[in-house]
Design a protein that fits this description.
It is an enzyme of class 1 (oxidoreductase). The chain has 267 residues and is an alpha/beta fold. The chain has helices at 18-29, 43-56, 70-83, 107-135, 157-177, 198-204, 206-212, 221-232, and strands spanning 9-12, 33-38, 60-64, 89-92, 139-144, 182-189, 243-246. Helix content is 43%, strand content 14%. The longest helix is centred in the middle third of the chain and has 29 residues, at 107-135.
Length: 267
Amino acid sequence: MEITLKGKTALVTGANRGIGAHMAESLARAGANVAFHTRKPRDEVNDTAERLAKECGVKTGVVVADLSDPQAIDDMFEQFDGQFEQIDILINNAGFENAHALEDMPREDWLALMNVNLNAPFYCSQHAARRMKKAGQGGVIINVQSVHDEVVRKGVAHYSVAKAGLKTLTRAAAVEWGEYGIRVVGLSPGAIGTDINQEDNERLGIDNMNSWIPLGFIGETKDVAGVTVFLCSEQARYITGTTLYVDGAFMHNVMRYDMRPDHDLGV
């Protein structure tokens, strides 16, 4: 089954590296025009956008904004409007994580993370939905969440809370905007190998990580990007208001020991 997004235009936040970069590239290779968002001007993002435009025969562009600032988000969509005629797909991917014990967490860190991981997707979704409604052709909004929207982890309470809020926003937006043909879907990755989390994975031990994941291996960015293309396509036209976990069943593997022998079970 060939999936095509030809004629569609997408905006991907946090497209300068990691999952976001692979998402943006995969959308372009599926035929979509793509706007790459980055927090700061980066030559490598411009180069990637130009290269994909030539290789894929699509239109690409770069928009720059610090998503912690609502005014910057407004300005980013003005940048987008100056380069593209419409928006059919919004990928709310940008986010960050840091670690603090809950009782010691600085207020400024709590607020900073909420601004980028929860508030920014809300503001971006508002902008996209208004444009999609005006065009009258529907659209797709993908909120990149995390397994931590369900499974909390010590030291990142603010991250888990933000992602759980984003999961609820996904459901609420799907209900409100469904009548306009706008689908809103959550995509929650588990352990994915990126340059951002490589150090953490190595600290925990790659072999340990692999053993904790029922499928037996840490995922790759392509595993998330491929699902993204599908969710943005016509093949997923009846999927909205739900969250898809791309984690190799990692979030379900809490009991990490084998079943007791039969004689211990009273059978």
